[in-house]
Amino acid sequence: MTVTFSALLIWFFFETIRISLGILPALIGAISLAASSGFIRFSSTVMIGIPSLSLTVISIYFLFLYKRSQQKYLLIISGVLFALSLKIKFFTVFLSPIILLFILDIKKINFESNQKLRSKLIYPLLLWIISLVVIFLIVSLLFNELSYDQLFGTHFGGEIKTAFVKDGFERLSKVIINKDYDLFYLAIFGILVVFVRHQWEGLFPVAWLGTGTLLLLNHRPVWPHHYCLIAIPMAWLAAYASVPLFDFFTNENLD
């Protein structure tokens, strides 16, 4: 089951990037993620992190589809999948504000009428939030899982923080420096590409990487499987880093 979810994660990760950048950068992103040391280690480990991340990536894929087609049912599917992701493991909750801002997309809003404002801003946000909350509550009530200890206690409880005083993020940093340094440098270059070329959809992985890093810096304990939280956006940004290279060869061939 874990291997199946890992395959789904890679496939929908590829498809999400393909929508924005094309096939070749999507291949770079998918291969970069699949080859990263953290993902290789945990893609076949019987843990709930990979299924949760897989559903999160699929949820994001439907968000990107919604951006192209503006079909509201895609928002519902995305909200349902994200709710199921949170029910498997709550550690992807930090992505919810990023997703809401992605749906918001202020630069495309026409403020000339309140009706247009509601249809372009309020309705999509409410649709995604309601889909998320309804499914989350239904599953929680069915399995009697709606409790503070299960949702937050295991992550933010005082006993947990005092029991694990070692800096786990330092361990993850060594993984980046010693094994995935190429992915790290590609991600840095990808961030530059996003801003220099004004490819604003790339702000999604930039925000994901920044927020995830800040959370891990201040979180205890940090386990090795948390590395996937930053490996996914780094691989995504590696795809953006490859765009100028592919554009260069394409222009050369045209000339």
Can you offer a commentary on this structure?
- The protein is mainly alpha-helical and 255 residues long.
- The protein has one domain (2-249).
- The protein is built from 13 helices and no strands.
- It has helices at 2-21, 23-35, 37-42, 49-69, 72-88, 96-104, 114-142, 148-156, 158-163, 168-178, 181-196, 203-217, 227-254.
- The chain is globular, with a radius of gyration of 19 Å.
- The mean pLDDT is 82.
SSE inventory with pairings:
Layout: H1 2-21, H2 23-35, H3 37-42, H4 49-69, H5 72-88, H6 96-104, H7 114-142, H8 148-156, H9 158-163, H10 168-178, H11 181-196, H12 203-217, H13 227-254
Give short descriptive properties of this protein.
78% helix, mainly alpha, 255 residues
Outline:
With about 260 residues, the protein is an all-alpha fold. About 80% of the residues lie in helices and about 0% in strands.
Q: Can you tell me the residue ranges where pLDDT is under 50 for at least 5 consecutive residues?
A: none
What is the ordering of alpha helices and beta strands? HHHHHHHHHHHHH
Overall average pLDDT: 82
Measured by DSSP, the beta-strand proportion falls in under 5%
User: How would you sum up the global shape?
Assistant: globular
Main sheet makeup: none
Structural class: mainly alpha
User: N-to-C terminal Cα separation, in Å?
Assistant: 49 Å
Radius of gyration: 19 Å
